[in-house]
């Protein structure tokens, strides 16, 4: 099919959809809700955000343009028993019939929203236009008028201790909080004079003070104990606001209620119960009578039928609640977080029992836990597609969640892979084999010698030791990589969505037992020296990652950030200088007669998802990376260099087929040369829900890689400010995704728009869209960003 036929076919398909009657199943006297608009004079709240308060929305539009699902529904016949009609209606979406009751409810919802924000005199009205046959357009008109503002705000908390906590000032130089006593927070009231009379902000202020109090012993305190009194009699649109403290109310056994001042609670006893099974406990059976008791420090540990499945010292170190200390909600949260890191346990629940001793309120704390399955096996099968070369891979996995009875997680994997190589560019390749294994152990604590226990508890980090071996066999060479690592992983205390990873030691030993002589001779000398020779990579690194994306909030605005830095070879280079080692003919030091790399590498990736509505989302990604070899290396090792193209990059190219720069490709160009030291990725994607689990995406990708230096074997591959913007490749495409919430499968296609590898007018590949040279497709798991 030639280009004009493609265009005619597309136009015919669009005309077929448009010609479908969208009111086929709209009865007489009913109206299809065709459009909904919001007209507001308040610029602080966008209409797209206010649509969430409407009780009725029109039929869904794919990419915000076409009511595709409504058209599919209308394709069905009126006989609902026919299989084809059932399927069309299941895939499609029934017409949304305008309901005036829901319109009035939407008006009330919008009024309630603006009143809560301080616009007490807001006016909301709706007009309905039914001039079009069987179609209705609803417009909501919002006139917010002048809002109410807070003239004077005071807080009158009759309890001096509570009042001092609510107005606590932060010290100039806050000290690191101890494990059991957090550092004081600064007084940052959310209510300011002249601010809007925003009820949401008032609730946040109550919650802020409640959190401060519950971190300082006030276990029974809740935000309902704080109330506001507003006086608007002085002037129009002005409110004098006062916060009051209600006394503690306790209901006695006879039903009477007594009021008393709020009291602080102290922890009395702390007990950890393992093997807790609420289903298996009868009404007359106590969890205390079914267990063995061990006292470790000030903590009681009760074991069940599984015996001492986890060491009592490990449980004690995970508890941040101690007898005699004030109750603190922060310590409770720390205890939850610490027990969550013990993968040998599950279903953690912390319960408190109140009691009064000599006019002092105390709490007995019981931490209930259940053991999880300690061991498990798994087999993974997967299909692979690298640059159009198909293959398969399989792995056998073993997991032990409590190796030394300290909730240490030991995992091991054996993996094998095969890929049939297409032999492009005259390389004559036949197949690719890979065989490898890895083993790791994760300690749920900070492991390092000569450090105090109190310091380790403050860090609350996990420690991972890992070793792996991988052997790759290609017709040109055999490569073996032996790796080892020592890393620390922890979450940000102030934000559980932030994660830190510090690689204290990261070692890779690359060994080439075999390399084809003709292949090696065809490589430039520098490429053969740095990419196809034995070498050590010894370094350290740090990665910070943040993401607020969860399956539950996928319909909201989300963003993620990843920043990483890696340093390699500095320690070995210092040792070489100290020991007075001599350089080889290439001017490089060696370790045990083997070259070692020295470089610095940094990456930053930022992604953001903007929810347009419940079924449409706009996402973009910016990724920048740069690596600089120095000292003992003039080029980065192949394993640390960047590549471009593929399912998570510029999708108009297959993996490792783009760049560097505008380096021209020939039949003899090796994939080893299509690597660089600088990367740029720019992605914009429009995601829209279709039906069931299916999702569609339209996207534009841009980016490339460059070398940090001008290498003679990678001509025009280096980064140059005078021309780099001309070397940014561009592609576009469509993707189909299958979203199962816990994982996502996607099939993405890409068509080249601008190809910097070509010359002259051929660079604009969009003028000749063909599926032979300018098209790529990708199968992957998960979103690209």
UniProtKB/TrEMBL annotation:
Domain Bacterial surface antigen (D15) stretches: 509-767
Location(s), subcellular: Membrane
InterPro entries: Bac_surfAg_D15, D15-like
Database matches in PROSITE patterns: PROKAR_LIPOPROTEIN
One Gene Ontology cellular component annotation held by this UniProt entry: outer membrane
Keyword Membrane listed: yes
Principal cellular location given in the protein's record: membrane
UniProt keywords, alphabetically: Cell outer membrane, Membrane, Signal, Transmembrane
Protein known as: Outer membrane protein assembly factor BamA
Species the sequence originates in: Parabacteroides chinchillae
């Amino acid at each position: 099919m030639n280009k004009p036929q493609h265009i005619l076919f597309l136009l015919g398909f669009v005309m077929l959809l448009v010609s479908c009657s969208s009111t086929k199943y709209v009865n007489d006297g009913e109206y299809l809700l065709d459009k909904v608009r919001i007209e507001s004079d308040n610029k602080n709240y966008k209409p797209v955000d206010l649509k969430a308060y409407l009780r009725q929305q029109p039929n869904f539009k794919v990419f915000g343009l076409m009511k595709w699902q409504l058209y599919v529904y209308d394709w069905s016949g009126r006989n609902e028993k026919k299989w084809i009609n059932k399927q069309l209606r299941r895939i499609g979406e029934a017409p949304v019939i305008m309901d005036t009751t829901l319109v009035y409810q939407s008006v009330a919802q919008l009024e309630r929203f603006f009143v809560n924000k301080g616009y007490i005199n807001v006016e909301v009205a709706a007009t309905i236009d039914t001039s079009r046959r069987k179609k209705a357009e609803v417009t909501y008109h919002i006139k917010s008028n002048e809002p109410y503002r807070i003239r004077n705000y005071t807080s009158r908390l009759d309890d001096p201790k509570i009042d001092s906590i609510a107005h606590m000032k932060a010290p100039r130089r806050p000290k690191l909080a101890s494990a059991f006593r957090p550092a004081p927070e600064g007084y940052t009231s959310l209510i300011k004079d002249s601010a809007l009379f925003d009820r949401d902000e008032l609730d946040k202020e109550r919650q802020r003070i409640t959190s401060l109090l519950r971190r300082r012993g006030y276990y029974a305190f809740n935000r309902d104990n704080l109330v506001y009194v507003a006086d608007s009699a002085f002037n129009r649109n002005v409110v004098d606001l006062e916060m009051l403290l209600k006394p503690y109310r306790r209901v006695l056994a006879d039903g009477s209620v007594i009021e008393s001042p709020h009291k602080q609670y102290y922890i009395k006893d702390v007990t950890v119960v393992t093997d807790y099974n609420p289903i298996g406990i009868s009404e007359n059976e106590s969890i205390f009578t079914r267990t063995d008791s061990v006292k470790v420090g000030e903590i009681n540990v009760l074991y069940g039928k599984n015996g001492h499945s986890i060491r009592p010292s490990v449980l004690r170190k995970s508890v941040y609640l101690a007898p005699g200390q004030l109750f603190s909600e922060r310590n409770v949260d720390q205890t939850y977080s610490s027990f969550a890191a013990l993968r040998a346990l599950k279903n953690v629940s912390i319960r408190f029992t109140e009691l009064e001793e000599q006019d002092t309120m105390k709490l007995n704390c019981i931490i209930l836990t259940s053991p999880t399955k300690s061991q498990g096996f798994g087999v993974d099968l997967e299909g692979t597609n690298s640059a159009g070369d198909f293959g398969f891979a399989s792995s056998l996995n073993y997991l032990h969640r409590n190796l030394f009875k300290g909730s240490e997680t030991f995992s091991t994997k054996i993996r094998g892979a095969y890929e049939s190589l297409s032999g492009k560019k005259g390389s004559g390749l036949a197949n690719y084999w890979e065989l490898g294994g890895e083993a790791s152990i994760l300690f749920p604590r900070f492991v390092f010698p000569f450090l105090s226990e109190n310091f380790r508890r403050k860090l609350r980090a996990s420690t991972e030791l890992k070793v792996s071996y991988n052997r790759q066999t290609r017709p040109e060479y055999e490569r073996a990589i032996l790796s080892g690592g020592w890393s620390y992983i922890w979450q940000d205390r102030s934000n559980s969505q932030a994660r830190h990873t510090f690689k204290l030691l990261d070692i890779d030993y690359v060994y080439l037992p075999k390399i084809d002589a003709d292949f090696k001779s065809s490589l430039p000398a520098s490429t053969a020296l740095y990419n196809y020779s034995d070498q050590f990579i010894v370094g350290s690194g740090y990665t910070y990652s943040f993401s607020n994306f969860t399956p539950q909030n996928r319909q909201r605005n989300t963003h993620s950030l990843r920043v990483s830095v890696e340093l390699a070879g500095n320690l070995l280079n210092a040792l070489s200088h100290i020991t007075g080692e001599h350089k080889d003919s290439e001017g490089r030091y060696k370790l045990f007669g083997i070259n070692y790399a020295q470089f610095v590498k940094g990456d930053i990736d930022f992604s953001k998802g903007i929810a347009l509505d419940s079924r449409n989302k706009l996402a973009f990604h910016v990724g920048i990376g740069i690596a600089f070899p120095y000292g003992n290396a003039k080029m980065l090792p192949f394993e640390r260099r960047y590549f471009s193209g593929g399912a998570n990059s510029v999708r108009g190219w297959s993996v490792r087929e783009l760049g560097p720069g505008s380096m021209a490709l020939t039949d003899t160009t090796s994939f080893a040369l299509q690597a660089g030291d600088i990367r740029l990725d720019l992605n914009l994607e429009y995601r829209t829900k279709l039906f069931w689990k299916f999702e569609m995406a339209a996207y534009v990708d841009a980016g490339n890689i460059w070398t940090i230096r001008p290498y003679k074997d990678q001509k025009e591959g280096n980064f140059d400010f005078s021309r780099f913007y001309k070397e940014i490749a561009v592609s576009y495409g469509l993707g189909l995704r299958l979203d199962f919430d816990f994982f996502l499968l996607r099939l993405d296609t890409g068509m080249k728009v601008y190809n910097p590898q070509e010359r002259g007018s051929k660079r604009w590949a969009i003028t000749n869209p063909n599926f032979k040279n300018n098209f790529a497709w990708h199968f992957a798991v998960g979103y690209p960003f």
